[in-house]
Amino acid sequence: MGTIQAKKVGNRSSAKKRRGIYLSKSLYIRGLQCHKSLYMEKFQRDLKSETTAETQALFDGGHMVGEIAQGLFPEGVLIPYIETENGVAEQLRLTSAAMKNRAKVIYEASFQHDGIFVKVDILCKGNRGWEIYEVKGGTKLAPVYLDDAALQYYVLTGAGIKVNKTYISYINNGYVRKGALDVQKLFTSEDITKQVKEKQTFVIKQLKKQRQMLSGKIPKIDIGPHCSDPYECDFWDHCWKQIPDDSVFDVRERGIDAYALYAKGIIKQKDIPLDLLNKKQHQQVVATMKKQNAIDKKKIREFLETLSYPLYFLDFETFMSAIPLYEGVKPYQQIPFQYSLHYQDKKGGKLYHTEFLSEPGTDPRKPLLEKLLAEIPDDACILTYNMSFEKRVLKELTSQYPKHKKIIEKWIDNIQDLMPLFRRRDVYFWKFKGSYSIKNVLPVLVPKLSYDGLEIADGGAAMDAYHKMCIAKDNPEELAQIKDNLLEYCKVDTLAMVRILDTLGELI
Question: pLDDT at residue 8 above 90?
Fold first, then answer.
């Protein structure tokens, strides 16, 4: 299958130049988002930010979705990713061999044309030619998916492959697992052949622009909405390093267009015309400039009067998966795998603590609920931070375990929420920087307690740690360390509520 190989370039000098502007599917998509990002990815990769735990979890989830999707067309030939000097050539050779051997389905089929290398998630042989299936972990057809598939179509047809149809296969979020995983129902495959063909002129123009850019100096592109659309750029820290603290981008709530102000040279909050700001933004900016705090003691008292004892401080940690792992679960449903529970029998009484962390590789919901039922009385007052989250978790548990519905519904009725005091800015300290997240509120109100120094410091990292815990189940030492980190983090979440509540009492 010589047609799969890259076309020859006219002379040695142009061939050398061509190698310098080699592209791939991911590079092309990066270039559509930002030429500067593409340039740095090619020539200045040392400027990249470190991959966050949340981003790594997304990558890992994407790989899992791709592998599961292969069940749509079983018994295909897999072309492995080969990361060696001759890896591309070997993947092309293996793909060519599979096609010569009349394989009907090829996973990760590899092709090269016009100096562009792509791997097709699933390539199927139909009656009228080959069919491309690009697999995505999203739940609807996104514009960037069309760009992705359009480049694949360009490369395959340019390499002499007859492509009859192109599909995007994405997650059907209406699917509920019942028994064994039904891969056919899990995915929706949408025919985008027409859109992909219409995009070919666009692809050719964009490739020319990207190569011209890469042949010169780094483009002068300033920060803008493109830094996070459609993906957050991994050169963010480098490109945003000149933005100071308390900038227009730190102003919370909807209202002003921070990028519009930035374009006018307004970068610091102190330079923003105050008449452009809504009430909450005005409060934040003025409080920041004057280092002012605002405390509504009446609102604090009204909130404290809604609480009763015994008082239970509850926080769940959950994970989500595009692939429903358990019975009765939908894609991306939040599954609780851990909780922390502090409680006091009376106001000012002794503080107790209990917790739960699931064993790896098992459905955590039943043992979690059983332990929770043994620990929280029916009539207990439960305090949370953002109660909509805990309520949603509990409601989903009632769906799976209806015999406990009455007790859980009592809990839900008795849940109180600590967050609205800060969201409404009944209590606002200028050091909150417009945020009402517990991660921002805690170190200001309770300086001796914070998330600094924890191995796990946010929910995204906790979710990633749980996935790692499942992978490390055969490594006792690593497993024990991950468990300790998760328990320590979740315990701080509920202890934070306890200490914040104490501080509110002191404020009045």
Answer: no
Separation between Cα atoms, residue 56 and residue 230, nearest integer Å: 17
Asked whether residue 234 is assigned to any structural domain, the reply reads: no
Nearest-angstrom CA–CA distance, 421 and 70: 49
- Is 241 domain-assigned? no
Place of tokens 């749980």: 466
**pLDDT tens profile 330-362:** 999 999 999 999 999 999 999 999 999 999 889
Strands 77-78 and 105-113: parallel
Domain count, the chain: 3
400 found inside a domain: yes
- E strand or H helix at 6: none
Alpha carbon of 151 to those of 90, 113, 195, 310: distances in Å? 21, 11, 12, 61
Helix 143-158, helix 25-33: angle, nearest 10: 140
- Range of the structural domain that residue 17 is part of: 2-214
In whole angstroms, give the CA distance from residue 335 to residue 396: 9
Model-wide pTM > 0.85: yes
Least Cα distance to 323 among 88, 65, 17 occurs for 65
- Residue 267: closest CA among 250, 289, 280: 250
Residues 262 and 371 in one domain: no
Residue 102 lies in a domain: yes
Q: Which CATH number fits the domain that encloses residue 33?
A: 3.90.320
133 closest CA partner among 183, 61, 202, 83 = 183
Which H or E run contains 320? none
262, 297: one domain = no
Residue 464 C-alpha from the chain's centroid: 10
pLDDT of 267-298, one tens digit each?
999 999 999 999 999 999 999 999 999 999 99
Instruction: Provide the 3-class DSSP secondary structure of residue 295.
Output: strand
Q: What are the DSSP calls for 71-121, one per residue?
A: GGS-SPEE-----STTHHHHHHHHHHHHHHTT-SEEEEEEEEETTEEEEEE
DSSP code, position 437: -
What is the total residue count of the chain? Answer: 508
State whether 60 and 153 are in the same domain.
yes
Both 326 and 269 in one domain: the answer is no
